[in-house]
Amino acid sequence: MGAVIGTIIFGAVIGFLARLVLPGKQNISLIVTVILGILGALAGYYLWGAISDKGNTSGIDWIRWIISIVVAAVLVVIYGAVTGRKQVR
């Protein structure tokens, strides 16, 4: 149960950071932000594992965080394009 709660919190942080790096205001809900953040985090971890031969690091893995945020930001843009929700400037 702790892993699920941790993943939701991590996804929320990644989702909010992804929305923060995008220009304008994204017109999406909190739940969608968390879901896209979780998907971005999982994809970021997978991508970093695929391109890196480093296993677990002893500390914060900044590259993995950056990849997760970029992937989540791309997902936010795709979600906006698919649902037709425009960014408010």
Description:
This protein has 89 residues and is an all-alpha fold. It is 72% helix and 0% strand. The protein has one domain (11-54, 61-83). It has helices at 2-21, 30-51, 62-83. Helix 1 crosses helix 3. It is globular. The N and C termini lie far apart (39 Å).
Kindly report how far apart the N and C termini lie: 39 Å
For the record, the count of structural domains works out to 1
What class do helices, strands and sheet pairing give? mainly alpha
Mean pLDDT: 84
Poorly predicted regions are: none
Order of helices and strands: HHH
Number of strands: 0
- Number of helices, counting only DSSP H or I runs of 4 residues or more: 3
From the spread of the alpha carbons, the general shape counts as globular
In short:
The chain has 89 residues and is an all-alpha fold. Helix content is 72%, strand content 0%. It has helices at residues 2-21, 30-51, 62-83.
